Amino acid sequence: MENKVYNLAMIGFGGMAGHHCTQLLKKNVPINISGVYDIDEGRMEAARERGLYTYPSKEALLADKNVDIVLIATFNTTHAELSKEALRAGKHVLCEKPVTVCSKDLEEIMELAKKQGKVFGVDQNRRVNKDYVLLKRCIEEGLIGKPYVIESRVEGSRGMPEGWRCLKALGGGMMFDWGVHLIDQIMMMYESEKVTNVFCKMYSVHYPEVDDNFRLTLTLESGLTAHIEVSTNNFINHPRWYVLGDKGTLQIDDWSCRGSIVRPLKDDNVWSAEISPNQAGPSKTMAKRSPDTVETIPLSAPTDVEDNLDPVYRQFIAAIEGKELLIKPAQCLRVMKVIEAAFLSASTNQAINTQI
Ligand SMILES: NC(=O)c1ccc[n+]([C@@H]2O[C@H](COP(=O)([O-])OP(=O)(O)OC[C@H]3O[C@@H](n4cnc5c(N)ncnc54)[C@H](O)[C@@H]3O)[C@@H](O)[C@H]2O)c1
To answer: In DSSP terms, which residues pair with 241 in a beta bridge?
Structure first.
C-alpha cells in the first residue's frame, strides 16, 4: 500500500468540491482526481475548464474500477443515499458535512461501511482551525483554570447564499451549515462528558423556510455551559470565542486569533462597608478593578497548525491503510444527536434533557 496514489472521484462539483480540487491539485497528499459528476451541466463545464474529466453519469463514476475514493459534496439531504450507493459500489467514501440530516441515516451508513469493509469518513475540517486549536490548547494548559462558560459565535451580515441553503427540503439553514462545525468543536473538547441538556432558539429573519440565525445552549455533565450562536444578519460582531474560567477570562476576537487572557494576580476583593462612587453607580461588585491586580496575556495564531484540508485527507488515507480514523463517524453521530435535540427544542420551545 505504501506510496500508493489513490484515485478520488467527486459527486457534486459546486463551491466546496472546487475548494477540494484546489487543495488536491497542490499534490500535498497522494490523491489524484480521476473525475467528477454533477447533475448541473454548467458545473460539469466548470470542471472541464479546470482540466478535470467529467463522467457521463453517476453510474459511470461508480463503475470506474480505478476509483478508490468517492467524495460526496452535494446538497445536504443527498449525502446519505449517495454515500450508501458509493459504499455498495465498493468505494471508500469521504462525505462533506453535515454527514447526514438525521442520526438514523448515519447509523445505517456506519453499518454498511462495516459490512463492505470500506472506510467512511466525514470532512469535519474545522477541527484544525487555528482559532479553535488555540482555544483548546489554552484550556488544556489550564491558563484560565476550569472553564464554566464557553461562548462560540460565527456572525455574518450578508444573509444566506442563494439556492439550496435556503431550502428546508435540501437540508438548508445555519444549524446544518455552521452549527455542525461549532458543535463538533465543543464535543471534541469534551469527548468523555455527556450533554445533559439542549436548548435552542432558531430564527428565520429573512429566509422563511430555514434557520438563518440560531442560539444554542448545551449543558454538559460537569455543569459547563457551551453557548453557540450563528447569525447571518449581524452588523456588530461579538468575539469569535469568549470563555469564563474560575481563574481567568479568555477572548479570541476573530479568525486571525487576535485576543487575550486576563486573569487576576492578586485578590482585589477587599470590600469596605461604604460604597464609593464609580461608573457602575452604587455598586461594589461592579466597581472597576485596579489594573495592577491583573495580568494580560496576549494571544496570537499558532504557527504549527496546518489549517487546510490536508489533515482530513491524510487521516482518511491512513485509515484505508489500516490506521485508526481520527474523524470518526461515531463522533459525528453524537453531533447529529445534539442537532436533533436542538431542532426538537426549537420546535417545542423547551429545554430537552439528554444523555448524548
Ligand atoms: N467542510 C466545509 O467547510 C464545507 C464548506 C462549504 C460547504 N460544505 C458542504 O459541501 C456540500 C456542498 O456545498 P457547496 O457549498 O459546494 O454547494 P454548491 O451548491 O456550491 O454545490 C453543490 C453541488 O452539488 C450538485 N449536486 C446536487 N445533487 C447532486 C447529485 N445528486 N448528484 C450530483 N451532483 C449533485 C449541485 O448541482 C451543485 O453543483 C454541502 O454539504 C456543504 O455543507 C462544507
So the answer is: 152, 252
Ligand 1 contacts CB of residue 76 (under 6 A): yes
Do 56 and 30 touch, CB atoms closer than 8 A? no
How many domains in the chain?
3
How many whole angstroms from 11 Cα to the centroid of ligand 1? 9
State in Å: Cα 299 to ligand 1 middle.
35
Query: Do 206 and 344 belong to one domain?
Result: yes
What's the rounded mean pLDDT across residues 207-228? 97
Count each helix (H run) and each strand (E run) in the chain, helices first. 10, 14
CATH number at 44 reads 3.40.50.720
Together in a domain, 153 and 246: yes
Q: How far is Cα 296 from Cα 291, in angstroms, rounded to an integer? A: 10
Taking 80 as the threshold, does the pLDDT of residue 191 lie above it?
yes
Greater confidence (181 vs 281) lies with 181
Is the whole-model pTM more than 0.90? yes
- For a ligand 1 pocket test, name from 20, 38, 81 the mutation site with the most ligand atoms within 8 angstroms of its C-beta: 38
Protein residue with least CA distance to atom 35, ligand 1 = 12
161 and 104 in a common domain: no
